[in-house]
Amino acid sequence: MKKKNDITIKFAATVVCILLCYVPAILQAQQKDSITVQLNKALFDKGDTINFEINLQQYASVAKTATIQLWIEDIKTGRRWKFRYPLVNGYINARLKIDSSLKDGRYAFNFLLQKTFFSITGHLANATKDDKLLNYIMIARDKQTVVDFVPLNEQQSFVVKNMLFQDSAFFVFARPRQKSNQLLMNIATPLDSAFTASATVTKFIVVGNVKNDAAAISTDTAGYVFKPDETKYKIMMPEVVVKTRSNKRLQDFDRENSTGVFSGSDAIMLDGISSDELENAPDLYTYLTVKVGGLRLVTDSETGNRSFSWRGEPTEIYINEIKLDPDIPLWINPSDIAMIKVFRPGTSLSSGASNGGAIAIYTKTGEYSKSTNRNYSFFINGYTGLEAVWK
After folding, report:
1. How many structural domains are present in the chain?
2. Shared domain check, 293 and 361
3. pLDDT tens, 233-258?
4. Sign (positive/negative) of CA torsion 190, 195, 196, 201?
5. Cα angle 298-140-89, degrees, rounded to a multiple of 5
């Protein structure tokens, strides 16, 4: 009887030992990144709004900020749409309206967790020994213009962190106290680079008139496999493609790039494409005050900042149709400008506009870009708005 008890004790000790050995593995499995997704329903009509709520379990072990990539895929055609959302404190609630142009069908909503937040890394290729930092301007549609600086490390590289904006923003980098921007640099963001999702959840929905019985659902969804083989965004917005090389290139550029109130014919157009007058200007401030009658250059005696006024009222400045806050320096090299549109006093391009007119500056892109020794301004994708349209 004593021998049997000894065997029992030894067996129990072995079991305990095995369990203790597996505890770390069990805890590790429990701590694996996972997200829960809730949709308001599964059947939608065009014009409906899809509401989705996302929770990141144990977000503190990941980060207080992360990113959710939403890749929607038409199950039958494979067509794909991409959205991305900021995940703050492990939670987000967003709405996506279904546009009337969307085709009826069954769609897979693939939610991917990316354990990084928006940032910009860059390298200054033509750095000098005196370069210790760079100034930058962020001009976004959904918030005020941001002006700041970022230090350069020993490798002439830098990182800009902790930014949150919707849609896209125009970034301009410059050396401190320079009049002519000659930077040559390259940038990247982790959200626009290849990544491996640390957690993925797929939900299926139906839009419009689609057969939705058990057999149809099984046929459509059983064989669906999400293949994240394109886990990379393009950091730049699509460039302008010019289809003609006639002597009317300015009109072509205007037609391709001017939208809404900026496309009116009442503006004075200054040519930076076929004329070298703008390219040879010492700076934008001097050029504009000489070319536009009535436009005055105002210099702040305390800060040294320069701005424009017209008939005693401040003149609004737009870069690529994004409004620039007053007193923000123009760090655009004149030779990198394709077109300037000058709107006379009395023209209103935005709500609450002053009566001092407006100046819209368009930078060269795509085929119009001639410079090979400068690269300092970039369109960069931000996050999708919490209320967006799927079309």
Report:
1. 4
2. yes
3. 444 444 333 333 345 788 888 888 88
4. positive
5. 135
